[in-house]
């Protein structure tokens, strides 16, 4: 077994855990199908298509020339802005990374096969253009299920340190109370649903190796999840601090301690090098695309995502920006972080919560240094930390009845508020920007004369919102 912890995996069979996790999976699929029917081709009109355009061009055109794909995408917002991003090599270069497209390729191939079969059976012909019915259904659904897998991986990790029922409830609450609810169901072609799975998989792989030792499969799993996570979003590289903190300091100690084992004592180091090689291989497609479109190794991705000021980050703006700061949009994050700190203090084996807290601090720092504040959606990779914190809070609350009521009430309010926000966005009474946009986008809409509110109460009382400008 890659994960090596059969008791944790078998705990999925517990009645409460199974019911809760099954409810999350079913709800995510039903919401995805609802979004598919209600919004038709929405994922071709947003940033989600910019993550998908690489796979679209590679598979259907066999090249890295994205101009025709951007021209053909139905309803693409800010189309001309993207078309104007022409590199010195004369090609349109896309600042969105290729990681999501790499994961979407199998689903794109499946949709293409279904389109060919549909046409071969004599039904009304569908264009094999990457935009017709099967592409619209299969690709987002596949990425949505990939995101759901991340929720389940988070549960497997938590069930090693908390009871299976508590781990399931905490995982479900983390999904329902954060942007994971929206991105897994409504816009899975954005990078955020994929981030949940890759970050959770990386932490789980590192924890398995720490507990059970190195094997070739575990090394590959660690390298693949880590490399793909960075291929999806460069800034997630700070989360590599988790396996570094959990695993690599002990490698030399292990080799020195087992000197009687002969050359085999270096096997953990060799397998760690394999993990690094696999991770580096995952970044190769991005380098090739950058060279083909921009003529440089880093490409436009490196230009757009370079932090501006490493030593004077706008941390408080990042987390407290009105209407879009991390703790403003998701105050449940404050509870999760505080509970994780408490859990790290009281737990004898505290390496996992400490590593999660370090990675979260580095994430806030690097986004603040880049001065792109208020994009609360960019912390989707912190889903595993939120779930851990909620599990720790529930465990702390279980010791006293009053504590239990307080913690349960706080989590329930966060879940209801976020679910209400999702429903109001779905009914066009709030902007989808409450999930997707930062302060800059909200300001741009208001400067164009479109009033913006992120309040659930206002969404209930105010008339339906008009569409924001492109």
Determine the number of helices (DSSP H or I, runs of at least 4 residues): 25
Question: Helical proportion?
Answer: 55-70%
Number of strands: 0
The main sheet comes to: none
Tell me the fraction of residues in β-strands, as a range. Answer: under 5%
Order of helices and strands: HHHHHHHHHHHHHHHHHHHHHHHHH
Name the structural class. mainly alpha
Measured between the Cα atoms of the first and last residue, the distance is 49 Å
- What's the average pLDDT? 82
What are the segments in which pLDDT stays under 50 over at least 5 consecutive residues? 1-13
Shape, per Cα inertia axes? globular
Radius of gyration, in angstroms, nearest whole number: 22 Å
Walk me through what this model shows:
The protein has helices at residues 6-10, 15-39, 47-61, 67-72, 79-83, 99-120, 133-158, 164-177, 180-185, 192-212, 216-232, 241-246, 249-257, 267-282, 284-293, 299-304, 315-320, 326-329, 332-346, 351-370, 383-397, 401-426, 433-436, 439-447, 456-461. It is mainly alpha-helical and 470 residues long. The radius of gyration is 22 Å and the shape is globular. The model is unreliable at 1-13 (pLDDT under 50).
Which features would summarize this protein structure in a list?
470 residues, mainly alpha, 67% helix, globular, disordered N terminus
């Amino acid at each position: 077994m890659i994960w090596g912890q059969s008791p944790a995996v078998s705990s999925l069979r517990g009645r409460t855990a199974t019911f809760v996790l099954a409810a999350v999976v079913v709800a995510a699929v039903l919401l995805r199908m609802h979004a598919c029917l209600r919004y038709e081709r929405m994922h071709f009109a947003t940033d989600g298509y910019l993550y998908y355009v690489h796979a679209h061009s590679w598979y259907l055109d066999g090249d890295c020339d994205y101009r025709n794909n951007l021209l053909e995408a139905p309803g693409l917002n800010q189309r001309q802005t993207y078309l104007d991003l022409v590199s010195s090599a004369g090609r349109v270069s896309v600042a969105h990374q290729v990681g999501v497209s790499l994961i979407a390729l199998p689903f794109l191939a499946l949709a293409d096969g279904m389109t060919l079969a549909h046409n071969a059976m004599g039904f009304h012909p569908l264009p094999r253009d990457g935009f017709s019915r099967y592409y619209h259904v299969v690709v987002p659904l596949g990425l949505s299920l990939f995101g759901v897998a991340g929720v389940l991986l988070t549960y497997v990790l938590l069930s090693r340190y908390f009871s299976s029922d508590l781990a399931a409830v905490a995982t479900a609450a983390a999904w329902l109370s954060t942007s994971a609810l929206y991105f897994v169901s409504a816009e899975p072609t954005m990078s955020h649903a994929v981030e949940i799975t890759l970050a959770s998989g990386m932490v789980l792989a590192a924890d398995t190796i720490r507990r059970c030792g190195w094997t070739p499969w575990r090394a590959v799993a660690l390298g693949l999840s880590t490399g793909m996570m960075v291929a999806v979003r460069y800034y997630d590289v700070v989360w590599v601090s988790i396996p570094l903190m959990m695993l690599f300091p002990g490698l030399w100690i292990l080799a020195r301690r087992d000197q009687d084992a002969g050359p085999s004592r270096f096997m953990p180091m060799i397998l760690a090098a394999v993990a690094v090689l696999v991770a580096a291989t995952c970044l190769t497609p991005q380098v090739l695309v950058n060279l083909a479109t921009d003529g440089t190794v880093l490409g436009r991705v490196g230009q757009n995502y370079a932090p501006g000021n490493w030593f004077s980050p706008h941390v408080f703006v990042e987390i407290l920006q009105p209407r879009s700061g991390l703790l403003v949009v998701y105050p449940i994050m404050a509870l999760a972080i505080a509970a994780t700190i408490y859990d790290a203090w009281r737990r004898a084996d505290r390496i996992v919560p400490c590593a999660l807290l370090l990675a979260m601090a580095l994430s806030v720092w690097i986004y603040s240094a880049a001065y792109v504040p208020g994009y609360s959606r960019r912390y989707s990779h912190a889903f595993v930390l939120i779930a851990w914190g909620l599990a720790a809070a529930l465990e702390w609350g279980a010791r006293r009845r009053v504590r239990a009521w307080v913690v349960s009430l706080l989590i329930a309010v966060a879940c209801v508020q976020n679910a209400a926000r999702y429903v109001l966005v779905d009914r066009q009474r709030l902007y989808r920007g409450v999930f997707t946009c930062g302060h800059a986008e909200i300001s741009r809409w208001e400067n164009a004369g479109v009033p913006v509110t992120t309040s659930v109460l206002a969404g209930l009382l105010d008339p339906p919102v008009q569409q924001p400008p492109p």
